[in-house]
Amino acid sequence: xxxxxRKGYKTxxxxxxANKRYLMNNEEAKxxxxxxxxxxxxxxxxxxxxxxEELEDYEKFIKERKDILKKVPHEDLENHK
Length: 81
Prior knowledge:
The chain is an all-alpha fold and 81 residues long. It has helices at residues 12-25, 27-48, 52-71. It is built from three helices and no strands. It starts with 11 loop residues before the first helix and ends in a 10-residue tail after the last helix.
């Protein structure tokens, strides 16, 4: 029995264009991609570029954010970004 393969694109450029079209038409996917990119960039900055003072600032920001998340019900988090 022959297995069905997923339809692929002939070039990576075609795949990039398909991804752009998908993100333009799907707000939820666009938001998830944005969050993923922000997480990745933040982690890279912390692990590779931040100096001690910047790391201490980030520790403060993290503590403040944790305090907010502990106090606010999950449904109201959208208002506390």
